[in-house]
């Protein structure tokens, strides 16, 4: 794998980030960190979607300019992603000058090629969706089914994009590439939506929408939402209608574009058509994740249950985001909806990260210090007891084999499923310790055997630290430090021979990698 380019949806900035936005960015960051363990040239793009009527209205309701509103809120997104250790390469804002200039050129090219035409139109516009709706999609009371608001009747002369021209090619692409839409069960939804697609409006009259990118040569029209927003995926890496950058040539097409299920239609229909019209290759996968509910209820301002991701870190006195990242990334099987609840969060991370994984490392290193003054002796590697050697080889083989299993899950964007495999190694290693009782071996004076068991577990912990790194980068780095393991190693280079003979650790250097939530220690360390 010589490059990996992945993107998230760009978030609307008419408010602060919530846990749903965070879910997507965490999932994508986990995917990015995993693939950075398999490739040297990875690029991770995220950002904010800043134009449109909704922003214009919110800004005017707050008595500030749209730009001021965008600046304030884009900053909140950046701060939240920093707190969650989202390690993106570029944060694009659709108000960035380089983006705006290329969007104008893209629009111009599409007009010149005959893919965009001007047309008088009357339609029902929902500013919540930032799109025109068909009458048949409304509720019985004539409301937008997602926003439960009456759409405005808009009568304008707009530019239209010839979506219908690409209908057959899109259907063909989806049918011929069953892994293009992830998860596959969503492909049928898209094929159904394709049945009755129409050309789409891609501009709004300046008299109605001022907060947008001007159409070149026709400044009475603003380029409206989707052409502006979707193009971010190519403008961010240097696309140009005349001379695309070297970076663009290397990175495009995207390896995966991560979005929520609600905007799959825009990505698997509109976006494909735009790319086809620009004669550009199509992304390899569109991964549509499910939605996060709060205590099993839809998050909404009216229910007052919108949670900001940083408020969770604060509520639990978390100095690092690892536990929250782990919980969110594993909250739902691939593409399904997930849920956040305080109690479940506490229970899951205490069980997995503190009791099973952290404790295993802590116990093993403490025994190494207690029985061997923290030293891994040469003789631990020399096989003596056949039964013990067989058990340890089998655990090592199973753990190494899981690297490929985890990689395979990631190839299909099965992030929670991959984590389950990692936890299954932790469980197997815990069972191995219980079965072989190194403390009993020590009591019986079987010191080499005792050392052999501990070394096997430490070896497995190296593999676990590498595999858990995408979810919990700080915890993994701390585990690796205590194991003297190089956490930046590529997955392919990991062997069952990472632990070397010699002094590994002293008593003072051992510390819990994750403190149980609500534990006294966690409270004290937070106060420090
Ligand atoms: N601006 C558009 C996307 C343009 S991409 C070229 C948009 N913005 S959004 O702020 O409404 O949503 C951004 C992303 O967050 C979307 O992928 C959306 O699915 C996701 N989520 C918003 N609420 C969510 C949950 N409650 N749960 C999970 N993801 C959610 O759409």
Task: Please provide a written account of the structure.
This protein has 528 residues and is an alpha/beta fold. The chain folds into 2 domains: 292 residues, Rossmann fold (3-Layer(aba) Sandwich), CATH 3.40.50; 176 residues, Isoleucyl-tRNA Synthetase, Domain 1 (Orthogonal Bundle). The protein contains 19 helices and 18 strands. The strands form 5 sheets. Strands 1, 2, 3, 4, 8, 13 and 14 form a 7-stranded parallel β-sheet that branches. Strands 6-5-7-9 form a 4-stranded antiparallel β-sheet. The longest helix has 31 residues. The chain is elongated, with a radius of gyration of 27 Å. 44% of the residues are buried. The model has no long low-confidence stretch (mean pLDDT 94). Bound molecules: 5'-O-[(L-methionyl)-sulphamoyl]adenosine. 5'-O-[(L-methionyl)-sulphamoyl]adenosine (MSP) binds next to β2, α1, α7 and β13.
Quick description:
The chain is of the alpha/beta class and 528 residues long.
Tally of DSSP β-strands: 18
Mean pLDDT: 94
What's the CATH topology name of the largest domain? Answer: Rossmann fold
- β-strand percent reads 5-15%
In the predicted model, the low-confidence regions spanning at least 5 consecutive residues are: none
Instruction: Tell me the distance between the termini.
Output: 44 Å
Tell me which ligands are bound: 5'-O-[(L-methionyl)-sulphamoyl]adenosine
CATH architecture of the largest domain: 3-Layer(aba) Sandwich
Instruction: Give me the CATH superfamily of the largest domain.
Output: HUPs
* Shape by Cα distribution: elongated
Rg over alpha carbons:
27 Å
**CATH level 1 name of the largest domain:** Alpha Beta
Largest sheet: 7 strands, parallel
Helix content: 40-55%
| Count of helix runs | 19
Helix and strand composition category:
alpha/beta
- How many independent structural domains? 2
């Amino acid at each position: 794998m010589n490059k990996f380019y992945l993107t998230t949806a760009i978030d609307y900035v008419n408010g602060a980030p919530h846990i749903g936005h965070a879910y997507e960015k965490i999932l994508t960051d986990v995917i990015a960190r995993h693939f950075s363990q398999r490739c040297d040239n990875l690029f991770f793009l995220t950002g904010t979607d800043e134009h449109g009527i909704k922003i214009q209205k919110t800004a005017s309701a707050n008595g500030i300019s749209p730009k001021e509103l965008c600046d304030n809120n884009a900053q909140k997104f950046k701060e939240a992603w920093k707190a969650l250790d989202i390690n993106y390469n570029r944060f694009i804002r659709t108000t960035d000058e380089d983006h705006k200039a290329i969007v104008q050129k893209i629009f111009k090219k599409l007009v010149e090629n005959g893919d965009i035409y001007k047309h008088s139109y009357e339609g029902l516009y929902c500013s919540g969706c930032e799109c025109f709706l068909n009458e048949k999609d409304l509720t019985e009371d004539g409301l937008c089914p997602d926003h439960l608001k009456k759409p405005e009747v808009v009568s304008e002369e707009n530019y239209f994009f010839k979506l219908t021209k690409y209908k057959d090619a899109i259907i063909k692409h989806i049918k011929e590439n069953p892994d293009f839409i992830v998860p596959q069960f969503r492909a049928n939804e898209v094929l159904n939506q394709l049945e009755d697609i129409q050309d789409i409006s891609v501009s709004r009259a300046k008299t109605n929408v001022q907060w947008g990118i001007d159409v070149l040569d026709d400044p009475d029209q603003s380029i409206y939402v989707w052409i502006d927003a979707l193009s971010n995926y190519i403008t961010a890496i240097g696309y140009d209608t005349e001379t695309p950058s070297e970076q663009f040539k290397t990175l495009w097409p995207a390896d995966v574009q991560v979005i929520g299920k609600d905007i799959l239609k825009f990505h698997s229909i509109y976006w494909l058509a735009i790319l086809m019209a620009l004669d550009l290759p199509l992304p390899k996968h569109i991964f549509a994740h499910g939605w996060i509910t709060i205590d099993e209820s839809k998050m909404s301002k009216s229910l007052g249950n919108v949670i900001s991701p940083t408020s969770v870190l604060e509520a639990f006195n978390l100095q690092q985001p690892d536990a929250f990242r782990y919980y969110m990334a594993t909250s739902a099987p691939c593409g399904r909806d997930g849920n956040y609840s305080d109690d479940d969060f506490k229970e899951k991370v205490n069980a997995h990260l503190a009791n099973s994984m952290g404790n295993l490392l802590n116990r093993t290193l403490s025994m190494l210090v207690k029985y061997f003054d923290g030293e891994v002796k040469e003789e631990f590697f020399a096989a003596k007891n056949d039964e013990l050697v067989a058990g340890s080889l089998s655990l090592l083989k199973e753990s190494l084999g899981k690297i490929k299993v985890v990689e395979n899950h990631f190839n299909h964007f099965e992030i929670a499923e991959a984590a389950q495999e990692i936890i299954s190694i932790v469980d197997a290693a815990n069972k191995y310790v219980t079965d072989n009782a190194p403390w009993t071996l020590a009591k019986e004076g079987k010191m080499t055997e005792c050392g052999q068991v501990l070394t096997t577990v430490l070896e497995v912990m190296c593999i676990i630290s590498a595999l858990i790194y995408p979810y919990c980068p700080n915890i993994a780095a701390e585990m690796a430090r205590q194991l003297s393991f190089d956490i930046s190693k590529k997955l392919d280079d990991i062997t069952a021979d990472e632990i070397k003979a010699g002094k590994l650790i002293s008593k003072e250097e051992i510390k819990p990698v994750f403190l149980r939530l609500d534990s006294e220690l966690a409270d004290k360390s937070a106060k420090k």
